[in-house]
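As noted in the main text, all predictions were made from sequence alone. Below is one such record, for Aldehyde dehydrogenase.
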Amino acid sequence: MSAIESSTSCDIRTILEKQRAAFQDREPYTLEERCELLDRAIGLLVNHEQDIIEALTADFGHRSPGFSKGSEVLSPLATLQQTKAELAEWMRPEQRRARAGEAWVQYQPLGVVGIVTAWNVPGYMVFSGLAGALAAGNRVMIKPSEFTPHTSDLIARLIRSVYAEDEVAVVLGGADVGQAFCGQPFDHLLFTGATSIGKHVLRAAAENLVPVTLELGGKSPTIISRSANFNEAVAKVVIGKLLNAGQLCVAPDYVFVPQESVDAFIGVAKAVVAKFFPTLKDNPDYTSIINTRHFERLQGYLSEARAAGVELIELNAGAEDFSQSPLNKIVPTLLCNPGDDLQVMQDEIFGPLLPIKPYETLSEVIAQINARPRPLALYYFGNDAAEEALVLTRTCSGGVTLNGVMSHASTEGLPFGGVGQSGMGAYHGIDGFRTFSHAKAVLRTAANPA
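Prediction:
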């Protein structure tokens, strides 16, 4: 079977050895076979859209159905379809210059790829990772998060319905299973999750010298320039922050606003939330926090900030009472210039809280960003070419969206990944294909004259 409840290290190793044996016993998958494997995943998303949405709703307590459809069905569906359309080109040997003879790079599958996904957008992570790994011709083992049991169980059943265990397998279980999974001698391991867990994953993989792609996170900053279309910028930041109630690894984590525009930012943010979320408590488009632990973590940030005298501004257009909310929903809240020593400015927030940091000069903004670990994403709003160039050259982040938020992460033609503590390596599109392939250098020497 493809899914193992409470698997042991021996169970996981058995599946791995079965997949490796199947990989070694035959020629690599042809283009046509890889496309057929991708088609099976496409069929799962097309045929089980509502099942996926309902499973996610059950796991979150409440989750925006529209967001679930877009992020967990339509987005990975587009990824799989684009992968299939471009795969023939990716698979072609890449010619290289040689002083003598003929040289090229030939991309070949690695063997067995392990994928460990997080809870916040589980369907997207599973199927986007699967797209790259299958496109490269690998067998795949997947460990989804135990924090989304309904979705993880559904994914396991769906995968099992269309793939043999030696093609794609799903392993279910808690942290102990995840630890055992990451200690296996895969040919490549893709992990998405918290930086703190990523360190343990890297240590476990090092025992077998397994190459690792880590997609972690961090505090992704947003800069609103004095040259920006201010109202449009604020609207994009606020709406982006409230998608999935801020539970996205590339959500804007804190925002730099010109000192003289802080009050205007607050006013526009209130108007935006009033327009798009006139109510929150029972609004089907406003998502709950995933579980009690994360709900209490976010409430702890607010309590600490309040005790420190930080001004907290709730974006609650309907003035609803959330004290008895059974669904772990949190009112979107702006925090005005919280101190850098507070936890809300130390941790990745992963919730609908948005610190506002007023600034005078761009140089001080860049200095503050560079004083922190390198983030997964950075956002700049402005129409000053010199200023934009300065931000791009003087800061280092996994990726950047200019005059928008998060869009670079869903652009398949761009590599997606972090740098430093926000991750290592990248995937998506051709970069995912290459991450899950071995780039074999080949040289055919020039024949000696007779």
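The mean pLDDT is 95. The longest strand covers residues 102-109. These features were considered when defining construct boundaries for the mutagenesis experiments described in Section 2.9.
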